[in-house]
What we know:
Helices cover 50% and strands 16% of the residues. The protein is α/β, with parallel strands linked by helices and 311 residues long.
Amino acid sequence: MIELLLPFFLLLLLFLALTIIWRINARKYISSGTVASAYDAWTQDKLLERLWGEHIHLGFYPSENKSIDFRKAKVQFVHELVKWSGLNKLPKGSRILDVGCGIGGSSRILAKFYGFNVTGITISPAQVKRARELTPEELNCNFQVMDALDLKFEDGSFDGVWSVEAGAHMHDKNKFADEMLRILRPGGYLALADWNSRDLREHPPSFFENLVLKQLLEQWVHPNFISINEFGNILRINKNSAGRVISENWNFYTNPSWYDSIIEGIRRPFAILSLGPLAIIKSIREIPTILLMNWAFRKGLMEFGVYKCRG
């Protein structure tokens, strides 16, 4: 009888150990410094890059082809947002600011396929270093360490502003919008995508939903979430906005990313194993948060907001 129960107890102990690791190593937002440290660590351990490629953001899965490859879906997302936002109407050589550029995946696409002159900024020095390593010299891309809430550029310096999944890390959403629209020239294009909650004032979360939101905030250094309408209104009332802001919820197109982000570990096991035993623990450690994200986005507690407007 003991022999039969032993595997169960071993699995239970493993589950408890992982739960303890998950909670002890929670990445709570304290300041922009904690965001920088988290992304430095994710970049330096190379796990996300090995598993997901050059793009940390979610992918775009067309309604007619939900089986698209995970990495191709991420590239597809960039092209879809460029087209939807109107950024592709800008001529070659236009200056684009990529806010929250990561290791430069989107910046390189914007430079290579659209001929833009791209400046990428991130709060993480490790990401800037890796972005520079991955970017061919012939591409018009440069990368800098900079806080998105304190952009070191003159007013109207850029023809377009691009930002994907960065705003959720900003504690001051108004300042985030202010800075992007300040450095966007009149008539320039803003293309933005972000993780949003539903309107929690209009539809307060249940006890369980509050627990889920708490984990989503504390595990991936998010200070707060706001709804698509709330951030859209922030853009609309900004003095540097032309006023016409269009937003949509792309949950339908992006939700397959969550399961695919886990399945990549099965498709590419050596990507994890090549980094050593600790990488296995690190990869398993992310699974509960990914599953919670998947649940929250499927149930509408979270929404994938995309925004476009003119300066």
